[in-house]
Amino acid sequence: MNRFSLRTCAALVALGWTAATTASAQTTKPSDQAATKSAAKPAEKQPATWAAAVERVARAAEKGDLDGVTAALSRDASVRTIEEDDRVPPIAMAATASDWTLLGTHAYEFPPASLAGDIAADVNRSDLVSDKDKQKIVPLDDVELARANTTAAEWLARTVGAERDSLVGVAVYWNVKTNRPMFVLVKGQPITGGGFAVTQAVYGDPMQRRATAAAR
Structure pTM? Predict the structure, then answer.
């Protein structure tokens, strides 16, 4: 198993007790799409593309900009941490992510074919990440990359309850204190009249629980 897969598989283990229930409870059904679209804030100018919507919420979170985060979300959006099922207010995500540095954002129609490779590329080109840490994440060859991409797509699906053709996205951050990647995983919908809004956001460090246990 390749090095990035070890990291993402550990995330799946850490998420296992919440992922199944979250996926079934928070997946937006086709019959709910009209309600989701109408729930977006009509007074806000919405991004013209899904990629712009993902970047909008990611950059607002990095700045600790609560108004910016809220503007990127639909009115009934679900926000939670990677560690917990319970919803948290958007201010919690903004306050937490403000300690991170954004490395990149990526938008997809599920399933993503290149998620692990995109994350690795963000890390590889960052001056914040040491060469030692880069070696733990960047796949050595195409075989490793293919396996890592499959694992990362499964992780994203389990975390946000993504189904085929769902609009999903990932914001990749780096925490210089812990020297680990941090993530905001999102799912969204188009809005009536144009634009896109985030309907679900899950954020945090998928390796935190394992790191905490190892430190005891």
Answer: 0.79
